[in-house]
Design a protein that fits this description.
Layout: E1 5-7, E2 14-16, E3 19-21, E4 23-27, H1 38-47, H2 49-59, E5 61-64, H3 72-82, E6 98-100, E7 103-105, E8 115-118, E9 130-137, E10 141-142, E11 147-149, H4 150-160, H5 162-171, E12 173-180, H6 193-196, H7 202-211, E13 214-218, E14 222-230, E15 233-236, E16 241-244, H8 248-254, H9 262-265, E17 266-268, H10 276-289, E18 300-304, E19 308-312, E20 315-316, E21 320-326
Parallel strand pairs: 4-5
Antiparallel strand pairs: 1-4, 2-3, 5-18, 6-7, 7-21, 8-19, 9-18, 9-21, 10-20, 11-19, 12-14, 12-17, 13-14, 15-16
Length: about 325
């Protein structure tokens, strides 16, 4: 139980083993000190941190709705109040920009592009354990950030495609992406190598890539990044269950631009191609099990990157969703 936070239902949630996904918390009007200002809200987060940690662990996603969070700076204060260590965005594919403090834009690619389901930065060895999203400007229409529980995807894939899963567990996945020097905002994977590795120096880029388990092959005006083989299935020790932790569907369907053919972007770890029908059936499973709620201005979504994958639906502008990544 919590003094400040009140659990409530929204129409788009799903119930898994008696637990709402996502779990939605709003201000408790009967609280002794309702979080009616940003400073009272951030104080309540610090005071009730163990409660918030426990509901995130139980559900995998927590939506904070109806709190006084209006700007990127407010959101940064909320992230800071949780006390998780920041994870710099090194090695990720999305074009995004720093806004304030620990806050950046989400994928800056055009609004008509869908971004398929993925665990954040699952294609590199260093990835965030938690993500925050904040709705600063709600979408004209569409633009949801669908979420899905990873262990459910693993269970369904095991049920429907046991032999494929066995191969995946044995070989893992190999990701290949060709990236230019500078950011290409027309592409959902258009982050240039200078932004990807936060340097203009090729030797520094190689060193940082190696730290992420990534090999670089320099081409005339771009670089080929080879990531892996990486495990596609992980074991979540805190919840004692296997999870579907990879960017297979995202890479196979979404890593497409002037430089990249998505079918070649991801293979089994031994270099053999993935069966198209199974990749698309996995996409069906992700869609079937997912939850997509319409964003409201001021929403803060806290996602456990070990528990849930996320995506982005296409939208009509305006829409401004900001993010922060935590170790």
């Amino acid at each position: 139980m919590s003094e400040t936070f009140l659990e409530f239902q929204i129409p788009h949630q799903k119930l898994f083993n008696g637990i709402q996904f996502p779990l939605v918390l709003s201000p408790n009007p009967k609280a002794q000190t309702p979080p009616s200002s940003l400073s009272l809200f951030t104080q309540a987060i610090k005071t009730e941190k163990s409660f918030l940690d426990s509901v995130l662990h139980k559900s995998g996603a927590v939506l904070l709705r109806g709190f006084p969070v209006n700007t990127a700076s407010d959101f940064n204060d909320v992230v800071e109040a949780f006390g998780f260590e920041e994870l710099p965005y090194v090695g990720g594919a999305a074009p995004r920009n720093k806004v304030v403090g620990r806050v950046s834009t989400t994928n800056d690619s055009p609004p008509d592009q869908k971004i398929p389901f993925h665990h954040e930065m699952a294609q590199v060895t260093t990835f965030p354990s938690k993500l925050f999203f904040f709705c600063e400007v709600e979408p004209g229409s569409g633009g949801e950030t669908p979420i899905v529980l990873s262990h459910l995807v693993y269970e369904k894939m095991k049920e429907r495609h046991p032999e494929f899963l066995e191969r995946l567990e044995e070989h893992g996945l190999l990701y290949t992406r060709i990236i230019g020097e500078d950011d290409d905002l027309s592409s959902p994977i258009g982050r240039g190598w200078k932004s990807t590795f936060l340097t203009k120096d090729k030797s520094v880029a190689e060193e940082r890539a190696a730290n992420l388990g990534t090999k670089l092959e320099w081409l005339e005006d771009s670089v080929k990044t080879i990531m892996g083989p990486l495990p596609a299935i992980k074991f979540d020790k805190t919840r004692q269950r296997k999870i579907w932790f990879n960017s297979m569907v995202f890479a196979y369907i979404g890593w497409e631009d002037a430089r990249n053919d998505p079918v070649k972007a991801v293979t089994f770890g031994d270099g053999k191609p993935l069966p198209t029908d199974i990749v698309y059936d996995c996409l069906n499973i992700l869609e079937e099990e997912s939850v997509a709620f319409p964003w409201q201005k001021g929403d803060v979504l806290l996602l456990d990157n070990w528990a849930a994958l996320h995506a982005r639906r296409s939208f009509d502008p305006p829409r401004r969703i900001l993010a922060s990544l935590c170790k």
